[in-house]
């Protein structure tokens, strides 16, 4: 980090892997959810733009199914979408899609944010903080506190009160020092690797948490589309 005119600035190369290799089964739409329009363009374009507008020097790596490459290029033409990005083919699972994205990063001395393509409402402040914390501490995982009470269910049908202050909802971006996350992804995929933090901590490394933003939902089911359109109507990007 260095300070120029009071603004703290890092000179480390920054990357963002935007994963959108899924099929969106829970959305149940004829085309995968990442290409559905909210506001005036596909969800995925909002997500890519968030990173580009935050810092245009971030190298954007977009992971989508290889069968969708032509479809995506056609969408870019249709929407006059000019944010520079590299297309990479997705894998069978999110883990494999991330690994394909990481394989495109040759150098090991940078920082990489891994972000779900279907989280278009991430705030620029969260993206910037994730790079800053990952540079200092190795990782930065965006999380938010719970507002509701929670209960733990047991297999025999009972439920128990849990202290919610000990829990956080996990979002993306999940940002890391490139060298460490590339090493972490050299392992065999395990069932509990639901995100990148779990892969990182499998190495025995502690993750650092940062504050996410509550609107940064993962668009998953049809009602999330309604909420997304509502947010854009009230709060155009
Ligand atoms: N093989 C996969 C599976 C998921 N993802 C991405 O990981 C993010 C989070 O996954 P999720 O919301 O579960 O997306 P889908 O797998 O598409 O949805 P579903 O589980 O409903 O099928 C999404 O941006 C999704 O495109 C991916 O890149 N490659
Ligand atoms: C990465 C993630 O969005 C963090 O909350 C989440 O783990 C993805 O889970 P999914 O089952 O692939 O939707």
Q: Could you write a compact summary of the structure shown?
A:
With 237 residues, this protein is an alpha/beta fold. The chain has helices spanning 43-54, 69-78, 94-102, 124-137, 178-184, 196-201, 222-234, and strands at residues 2-4, 7-9, 14-19, 37-38, 41-42, 59-64, 86-89, 111-116, 139-145, 150-153, 159-162, 168-177, 209-211. The strands form four sheets. The protein has a seven-stranded mixed sheet with strand order 7-6-3-8-12-9-13, with helices on both faces.
CATH architecture: Alpha-Beta Complex
CATH class: Alpha Beta
CATH topology: Spore Coat Polysaccharide Biosynthesis Protein SpsA, Chain A
The name of the CATH superfamily reads Spore Coat Polysaccharide Biosynthesis Protein SpsA, Chain A
Main sheet properties: 7 strands, mixed
Strand content: 25-35%
Protein structure class: alpha/beta
**How many helices does DSSP assign?**
7
Which blocks of ≥5 consecutive residues have pLDDT under 50?
1-6
The value of Rg in angstroms is 18 Å
Give the SSE map.
Elements: E1 2-4, E2 7-9, E3 14-19, E4 37-38, E5 41-42, H1 43-54, E6 59-64, H2 69-78, E7 86-89, H3 94-102, E8 111-116, H4 124-137, E9 139-145, E10 150-153, E11 159-162, E12 168-177, H5 178-184, H6 196-201, E13 209-211, H7 222-234
Parallel strand pairs: 3-6, 3-8, 6-7, 9-13
Antiparallel strand pairs: 1-2, 4-5, 8-12, 9-12, 10-11
Helix pairs in contact: 1-4
The structure holds cytidine-5'-triphosphate and the ligand C[C@](O)(CO)[C@H](O)COP(=O)(O)O.
Cytidine-5'-triphosphate is lined by residues 19-26, 34, 63, 90-94, 97, 116-118, 218, 220.
